[in-house]
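Take a careful look at the sequence and tokenised backbone pasted below. I need to know what the token row says about the fold.
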Amino acid sequence: MSNKTKAVLLILLSAFAFSIMQAFLKLSGDVPVVEKVFFRNLVSCFIAFIMVKKAGLPLFGSKQNRGFLLARSLLGVTGMALYFYAIGNMNLADSSLLNKLSPFFVTLFAFFFLKEKINRTQIWAMLVVFLAAMLVIKPRFDLSVLPALAGFSSAIFAGAAYTLVRFLGKLEKPATIVFFFSLVSTVAMIPFIIANPVMPSVNQLLLLLGTGVLAAVGQFTLTYAYRMAPASDIAIYNYSNIVFAGWWGFMIWQEIPDWMSISGAVIIVGTSVGLFIHQHRNSKLL
């Protein structure tokens, strides 16, 4: 197999691992979101610590970058908490779809804060995707809209966090960034857990630990995929997570998205694929 084929298979494996992680989170039931975030990051923290020490890197990065590392971590953990809340309170496919809006917010934030260029096609794509997201959110004036708003907001926070990751990518090693984020995300949840402790059952504890292992598998396979092929060639395959999540939602909870969610999904994924093809063609012409 070519490196690109291997990369595609790895990114599909990553999406599959993350979809099982999402199912585990939903199966863990009424465990508070803060405990879900804690266990999700605890495993990653240990793995990243080993990687950082093995590579002989500074655990907390350079002094001048720690403010950016902290901001990335706080934005990331907020987005994660919102996403986990959405997973527990709406269809798995819908929550996954809303979270997958983050690349569009990366484009927007990178334009404003990193001064990266944005073209007219990207602007139109973002407008179309935003309107399509409303089909999934289904705005209404009651509390039932909160999970969908949380899922949408998780994409905004994730987009801001990934923008800082892009900025830090030239200044710090990936292992340091991951360790800093995992550590902050784990420690930040401890006061909330102490304030409202809930003892998970044995099954719930195993599911929560499983989310950490699956997240690590998903992250590592994603990292190796991007090492084997350019992100511009393979990133689009990450949307397969929506299909996998929809499958688990149907098989376990008999979740069937309504016509508005399906329409929104088709428009969002279709716009993403169209934008991917357009940019790929333009990059080859340059």
